[in-house]
Write a structure and sequence with these properties.
Helix content is 37%, strand content 20%. With 451 residues, the chain is of the alpha+beta class. Strand 3 and strand 4 form a beta hairpin.
């Protein structure tokens, strides 16, 4: 285990959790891109999770909370005004840094119900699958609350997710490995996947989508550091059981609370001796909701929001977008043909080699006296789709700062080469998908070497 990392128990939890707006929770870090177009508006960005296990990990940067099971990231957005597109990604894990978890846990209540295990708040709805120990009147109240605040407003997306779980190709861990939606300090607002994912699936999954900073292949670092091989096998088996249950249970789609009731019956059969965490009272002095059982010991502590991740409003973010109209997106053509050939193009260029047109953004301050911080900043610029000339300038600055600290680093030659290429690139052009993928891998190798 890496120095400074302490793993809590791997706990079975059996919960249903929904984050109504991922962007709102994170302070709207980005609108993202889709099919080489800037997203101009996001109308829905929902995270749904049928949890099966959880873990709390202590790291040098802070606490990391894991929720593991069947997850779904769903977005509805525009890349041209008035033309809506929907996209989604399967998830097997939520990876929440402590300040994000505490943001969920301190979210404002939407109801007056006094059930500590049931949380219905602005940023999160969480209910245990098993409410069998509740009194009949309490069950009726919980049912009504969830219907009003969860099952009616998000019915269509929940039903869509359940249909996709039924697909035999979904959640096949041997083919996909794991997919974690991360708010880790180094991978904020990123989906982390493994290079072990089958090639065709990987290329499709890596395509950018609305609301995310990036999709990265750096998951293996956390699997190795935060879970043993035996624990990963246990998690995989749990996901297999959850898929079997949620793809076969019968419920009333007009009365979605029946989904909870039926899932509880079958999960108890499939997972004997499943623990039931029950709190018989609410301590008025505690500062937070109980989202995960592993966070119970920290109910009186709130981690402040880091200045590094500056929050903004949805309106402010959308108003700042520069809509580029020179390329028109045609959904049907894109779905059928992939890349559309423009009439005046002399040759065909695969989509993953195309350099997209991007908005020129002001470079952030490049750190001057810490190699890891310099490289991490360069990585962020690559992930957030800065234009090539700005990336080239940043690489030149980073190279000079690192050179002032160490003279004999192989990466300095590579940084000089990249700076020279990118500073001469065409205006308003960004990295192609292939360039971005390869450059992120290169920077990650530099970071690993210098740790």
């Amino acid at each position: 285990m890496s120095a400074g990392i302490f793993k809590g128990d791997l706990i079975k939890n059996n919960i249903f959790l929904v984050i109504p707006s991922w962007g709102k929770l994170l302070g709207y870090p980005t609108l993202g891109t889709y099919a080489n177009h800037n997203v101009v508006k996001i109308s829905e960005d929902l995270v749904i999770f049928f949890g099966g296990m959880e873990r709390l990990v202590h790291t040098p940067k802070g606490l990391v909370y894991y929720l593991l099971g069947l997850g779904y990231y769903y977005t509805k957005f525009e890349i041209q005004t008035g033309r809506y597109i929907t996209d989604s990604r399967f998830l097997t894990g939520l990876m929440l840094s402590d300040f994000i978890y505490d943001r969920l846990a301190t979210s404002k209540d939407l109801t007056l119900q006094n059930e500590p295990e049931v949380v219905v708040a602005e940023d999160v709805v969480k209910v245990p699958i098993d409410v069998s120990l509740k009194l009949p009147n309490k069950k009726t109240f919980i049912q009504g609350t969830l219907m009003r605040n969860l099952f009616i407003p998000y019915k269509d997306v929940i039903l869509e997710f359940l249909e996709k779980i039924k697909d035999l190709k979904s959640f096949q861990i041997r083919k996909t490995n794991h997919m974690f939606l991360s708010t880790h300090w180094d991978y904020f607002n990123t989906i982390l996947i493994s290079d072990a994912m089958e090639t065709k699936l990987k290329m499709k999954y890596l395509e950018s989508t609305a609301g995310l900073n990036s999709i990265s292949l750096r998951l293996y670092r956390f699997l190795i550091e935060h879970f043993s091989d035996a624990e990963i096998q246990e998690i995989n088996e749990n996901i297999k059981i959850l898929k079997e249950v949620y793809s076969t249970i019968e419920f009333d789609p007009m009365h979605l609370y029946s989904l909870i009731e039926q899932a509880n019956l079958w999960i108890k059969i499939k997972i004997p001796n499943l623990p039931l965490y029950q709190t018989s009272y609410i301590d008025e002095k505690r500062k937070k909701h109980s989202i995960l059982h592993s966070g119970e010991k920290y109910l009186d502590k709130i981690v402040p929001w880091p200045e590094k991740f500056k929050r903004q409003t949805k309106k402010g973010l959308e108003d700042s977008v520069n809509v580029i109209q020179e390329r028109i997106y045609h959904p049907k053509d894109f779905e059928k043909k992939g890349v559309i050939l423009e009439p005046n193009r002399e040759h065909f260029e695969p989509k993953f080699l195309e350099r997209p047109t991007v908005k020129v953004k002001t470079l952030p301050q490049i750190p001057t006296n810490n190699i890891i911080e310099i490289l991490s900043t360069l990585r962020t610029l690559v992930e957030q789709d800065y234009d090539l000339r700005s990336i080239g300038k940043a690489f030149a600055l980073g190279r000079d700062y690192i050179k002032a600290m160490v003279l004999h680093q192989n990466m300095l030659w590579d940084m000089s080469k990249l700076a020279n290429i990118y500073t001469k690139a065409q205006l308003n052009k960004g990295l192609s998908s292939k360039e971005k993928y390869e450059l992120l891998e290169k920077i990650d190798n530099w970071i690993d070497f210098n740790k």
